[in-house]
Amino acid sequence: MSELSVNHLLGIKYITEADIQLIFETADHFKEVINRPIKKVPSLRDITIANLFFENSTRTRLSFELAEKRLSADVINFSAASSSVKKGETLIDTVNNILSMKVDMVVMRHPNPGAGVFLAKHINASIVNAGDGAHEHPTQALLDCFSIRERLGGVAGKKVVIVGDILHSRVALSNIFALQKLGASVKVCGPKTLIPKYIGELGVEVENNLNAALNWCDVANMLRVQNERMDSSYFPSTREYAQQYGLTKKRLDSLNKEIVIMHPGPINRGVEITSDVADSKQAIILDQVQNGVAIRMAVIYLLASKIKQYEDH
Amino acid sequence: MKGFFYYGNVKVNIHKKPLHLSPEHDSETSMSQKVLLNATEINIALHRLACQLIENHDTFENTVLIGIQPRGIFLAKRLKQLLEAHYKIKNIRLGYLDITFYRDDFRRSDKPLEANKTNIDFIVEDKKVVFIDDVLYTGRSIRSALTAIQSFGRPQEIELLVLIDRRFSRHLPIQPDYRGRQVDAIKNEKVKVCWKENDGEDAVYLVEK
Question: Which of A157, A216, B129, B204 has a 20 to 30 A CA-CA distance from B60?
Fold first, then answer.
């Protein structure tokens, strides 16, 4: 097994455990590469990648762009705010126009769930989903699991609790799929209003009490409260949310073990996590960011290796 | 040069004629596999290569050895061990270099390229670097290694040591500075180097594909 089973990375749902392990092993090598004095390899010098961001992003876009540049790919960037999308162009038209400029791979973030899947059916290029609505964010889940593997030596058998706004979170869904494929057990924790009704069908337990969840877990992944996606009030006030579901130093000290703290960013300091916890040694938030580049390099490298040299023209 | 080289009391001819091999003269083993070097011959070659390295690099103060992944590392480890244990040279620095991401056949070969570990925990800048690989064939791996090593700094000079040098098969103008044995092999033959620690025996075979 040294090739991915898929031609696109649309979601963790569509890939196998062997795919994930291959991505991790490749990312190990790239992590070594990005710690060299010269952090660049020439593998993808004949590949052109378009980053299409129909939704705001800093971390993910920078991380993808850096990963592409470290692999020597040519990169073009597109963000919806400054484009013809505003003039009413359809998604397929936009992408086909970009592809006619001979682009081999598309990294896309889009507010609509399934945008990547839809695009993969209609265009002839490799697609990486960089987040589609509340559906999936596969590279985030991969880098989260990779960071757990790095810190705890493995993912299988570990207990992970995902805390916060599960309802609006693509990170949560991708993480659940990835963790389960790798043999970890997963609980979700948050106010009832922010837990999807049928989450139990994914084999995930729901815990409404944060202290109980923390006592159970090895790793706590604290999600951001996504105010921008909330169309009504899901909890009475930010202050009340922080009191019930915020991770504080006091809560951590009351545990009789040391757990690993993760956060996909951007952090609302003082809401889901306090500053002293976010900056503590237990938090691997910045490791996650560094691993993000290595994981994205691995994903892009492995997908690009499936685009054969003379096949497509 | 006299053409002979001494280590201990053993005299070795370093200008030994290259082996000319063709399947029809193959009598040593089965039709498909011929022994090029046995364990004793490999051992003699290793000693000679070690001594030649000492001739040029003395105490290895400013020299680093780089084994090319995946198969060059066995030869590199052996040489390091020999130089330290037998020739009493201390603190030889040995690193492993993986060239997968620098290869020129990405997306061109049928098989996906699998990466190996790179481990160079010393500074390469201004050092004399010796690349070590088991077989020199087209020279493309070494071309990739020359690019790859630049990511770790600018070496003062780079030399190449190989156990087996396949003549007349180069695609690039690359030649070894140290060679264990030169062989002539045709395209559909493969030179297989086996190491005790990995393959159960020390031997070099010529295999018909």
Answer: B204
pLDDT, tens digit, 9 for 90 and up, residues B145-161:
999 999 999 999 999 99
Q: Which CATH architecture has domain B18-208?
A: 3-Layer(aba) Sandwich (3.40)
Stated pTM of the model: 0.86
Domain boundaries, chain B: 18-208
- pLDDT at res. B25: 45
Q: Note whether A307 contacts B108, CB cutoff 8 Å.
A: no
The whole-number pLDDT of residue B31 equals: 56
pLDDT at A25 over 60: yes
Yes or no, beta carbons of B151 and A38 under 8 Å apart: yes
Token readout for A303 is 């997908």
| Same-domain status, A151 and A30 | no
ipTM: 0.77
Q: Answer whether residue A48 is part of any domain.
A: yes
Q: What share of chain B is helix, strand, coil (3-state, %, to 5)?
A: 25, 30, 40
Q: What CATH number does residue A95 fall under?
A: 3.40.50.1370
Q: Confirm or reject contact between B24 and chain A (CB < 8 A).
A: no
Residues in chain B within 8 Å Cβ distance of A32: 117-119
Catalytic site residue from A8, A137, A168, A224: A137
pLDDT above 70: residue B18 = no
Q: Given an 8 Å threshold on Cβ–Cβ distance, is B151 in contact with A42?
A: no
Q: Is B60 left (phi over 0), alpha (psi -120 to 50) or beta?
A: left
Rounded distance between C-alpha atoms, residue B78 and residue B91, angstroms: 15
Q: Are residues A142 and A126 in the same domain?
A: no
- The radius of gyration of chain B from alpha carbons, rounded to an integer in Å, stands at 17
- Residue B25 and residue B22: Cα distance in Å, rounded? 6
Average pLDDT of span A258-276: 93
User: Which chain B residues have a beta carbon less than 8 Å from that of A41?
Assistant: 101-102, 151
**How many angstroms separate the CA of residue A48 from the nearest CA in chain B?**
14
